[in-house]
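An instance follows:
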Amino acid sequence: MKKILFIICSLILISWKEEETVKQTKFIQTVTEKNARLNNEHPKQTKIINPKFNLKLLYGIWTYDLEGPHADFELTKKSFYVVDYDGNGDMPYIINQDTITVYYPDYVSVGIIKSVTKDTLKIDWDKNGIVNCVKWKQ
């Protein structure tokens, strides 16, 4: 009786593991397909939809570290320009309320704008935590 119960439990466990593997594979395929679609569907131009923050405060040259040798990015009404980028640093972006989506050539980065003043900008990039930016003064 114990052997039969053990065999039944083993079969259930194997079946459950196979089901979980199938679910994980489908999830990975979905994410891969979504990223491929996003990479192929990059907008050609920047778009601003119902911004939550004052655009005059958002536009400017920003840095993550004032002690660094250069600024990190410039946000204009036309592009998100990455400083020290190999090749063309102008990236189209979309601002939709408090969300900024930047379309790099090989990936998409999404940030939630938490606050902006004339000299500070706080963005939660890709849900990795809030990054504090300051206006570049040089």
Notes: The mean pLDDT is 83. The two ends are 80 Å apart (CA to CA).
